[in-house]
Automatic annotation (TrEMBL):
Annotated protein name in UniProt: Pyridine nucleotide-disulfide oxidoreductase
The FAD/NAD(P)-binding domain, residue ranges: 43-158
UniProt key word Transit peptide: no
Record-linked InterPro entries: FAD/NAD-bd_sf (IPR036188), FAD/NAD-binding_dom (IPR023753), Sulphide_quinone_reductase (IPR015904), TAT_signal (IPR006311), TAT_signal_bac_arc (IPR019546)
PANTHER family on file: SULFIDE:QUINONE OXIDOREDUCTASE, SULFIDE:QUINONE OXIDOREDUCTASE, MITOCHONDRIAL
Gene Ontology MF term list: FAD binding; sulfide:quinone oxidoreductase activity
Membrane spanning residue stretches: 12-32
């Protein structure tokens, strides 16, 4: 409220501008009828009905109205995951993030409520978990990430979601986010030590845990409890984010606000009973020209633990020989060209969203740029033309830094990539908070999933 009163006329105009753009795309364009781009009738299979699979299926129906589109996914609910940090922060409720897929999937798309167990890329067929076989001309893999909480000894997704374990949560599940909110409330009421742990695998929205860490610090400060709330962020990798400029900015914020952090500390085990987290401190060194890592074990007592799981992709991807084959992510993530999103070995296979093996782009905002690219490239391929559309790695993560403030973190393969000058590349502002909290969900859930934004 206070923030609203203090808003300058210029800010208000900017908000109206951004609001107009966002609502225009979310609402206004909904009314416009998309024009077909081809009468061809390919048989397209999409595995995974998350933000990526649903948005692309809607676009393909617009562009190729005669196409047969089979969309496979057994899960009837889509959670708006960018809202999970807002649940933890007490701004959204669980129900604000919950959507029935039947309300989102275009009626011309054939939604098959089964998961895929097997892909045979050489004969272009799929097998569902119940053993039914389907063929395809084009295949789109949109299966997101698979969480591996159990790779931390003593943890599992059940424990994360179980209210009985009331001091261990993850904002990467909806129930974990609800629990995280209660934990934050307890911390600012009674004090205690909060430990935040992040893995060294690729993760979606790399800023998410930091957002919650920032909100906790801000809330504790505003409630005069900062001296009683200890916090420490342990990052398994070697930087705060995959965008170097923003990684530096985040470190700067942590230092300025006296929020301790350690990098190259990978959670290994959690002793729930004694409330101790065990980390491997990873210390790289070179011996006779060979890169090695020395490991020192570090034990950290905690009152509250906020964990991000290690992430991999659906097992069928590696089984089918579709995964990245070299480097530190070998055996995972779909091996696609980072610009065209076309599989490097199988030209009729594409990947969208978090499962794509591209160096950046594990955000919903990336999907907004990816789905028109894949739709165009399928059209080009159908017409025997070189693929013309490219994804340049756009990734966006509005970083909530305080209640009422955020930095619009936006970058691509090359560097920072602000979509509007008023957002600023590294500037904390109330405008960015407003966009994240009030506009983005509408843009995604009323626009993007219908291929209208
Ligand atoms: C805490 C948090 C905060 C975030 N904040 C932001 C943010 O601020 N901004 C932003 O842009 N993004 C944010 N994101 C990231 C964003 O939510 C994801 O990038 C996006 O939802 C990924 O969409 P997807 O379609 O790739 O995967 P998902 O939405 O995860 O969907 C994958 C689908 O595939 C299905 N599936 C899996 N395996 C199979 C199979 N074998 N067969 C059939 N179906 C299968 C699943 O059931 C699921 O429905 C955040 C995410 C989290 C968790």
């Amino acid at each position: 409220m206070e923030k609203t009163k203090n808003i300058s006329r210029r800010d208000l105009l900017k908000i109206m501008g951004v609001g107009g753009v966002a609502l225009g795309t979310a609402g206004g364009l909904m009314a416009t009828k998309a024009e077909a781009k081809s009468n061809l009738a390919p048989n397209i299979a999409i595995i995974g009905a998350g933000l990526g699979g649903i948005s692309l299926s809607a676009k393909l129906i617009d562009d190729l109205p005669n196409a047969k589109i089979n969309l496979f996914d057994a899960d009837p609910i889509l959670y708006y995951q960018p809202g999970f940090t807002l649940i933890a922060g007490g701004i959204y409720d669980k129900k604000d993030t919950e959507f029935q897929k039947q309300d989102l999937i275009n009626e011309k798309v054939n939604w098959i409520k089964e998961n895929i167990d097997l892909v045979n890329p050489d004969d272009k067929s799929l097998v569902t978990t119940s053993g039914k076989t389907y063929s395809y001309d084009y295949l789109i893999i949109a299966t997101g990430t698979t969480y591996k909480f159990e790779e931390y000894e003593g943890l599992s997704e059940e424990i994360i979601n179980d209210p009985q374990y009331s001091n261990i949560a993850s904002i990467y599940t909806v129930d974990g986010s609800v629990k995280a909110h209660t934990m934050i409330q307890e911390l600012v009421k009674n004090g205690g030590k909060a430990v935040f742990a992040e893995p060294n695998t690729p993760i979606k929205c790399g800023g998410a845990n930091k957002k919650v860490n920032f909100l906790l610090e801000d809330l504790a400060t505003s409630k005069n409890m900062r001296s009683k709330v200890q916090m420490h962020l342990y990052v398994g990798g070697e930087s705060m984010l995959s965008s170097p400029v923003h990684a530096k900015m985040i470190e700067q914020f942590f230092l300025e606000r006296k929020m301790p952090y350690s990098m190259r500390h990978l959670l290994r085990k959690v002793d729930k009973e004694n409330k101790i987290a065990y980390f491997d401190k990873l210390m790289p060194y070179t011996e006779n020209g060979v890169q090695k890592t020395a490991i020192e074990q570090v034990s950290v007592p905690f009152d509250y633990l906020f964990v991000i799981p290690k992430m991999i992709t659906s097992p069928f991807i590696a089984k089918a020989g579709l995964a990245v084959t070299s480097g530190h992510v070998a055996g995972n993530w779909v091996d696609v060209d980072k610009f065209t999103l076309q599989h490097k070995k199988y030209p009729t296979i594409f990947a969208i969203g978090d499962c794509a093996g591209v160096p950046k782009g594990k955000t919903g905002a990336s999907i907004r740029k990816q789905y028109p690219v894949i739709a165009q490239n399928i059209l080009d391929h159908l017409n025997g033309k070189p693929l013309s559309a490219k994804f340049y790695g756009y990734t966006a993560c509005p970083l909530l830094t305080r209640y009422g403030k955020a930095v619009m973190v936006e970058f691509n393969y090359e560097g920072v990539d602000p979509s509007m000058p008023c957002f600023g590349a590294t500037r904390e502002s109330w405008l960015n908070w407003f966009v994240k909290v009030y506009l983005m969900k509408a843009m995604v859930m009323k626009g993007m999933v219908f291929a209208k934004a």
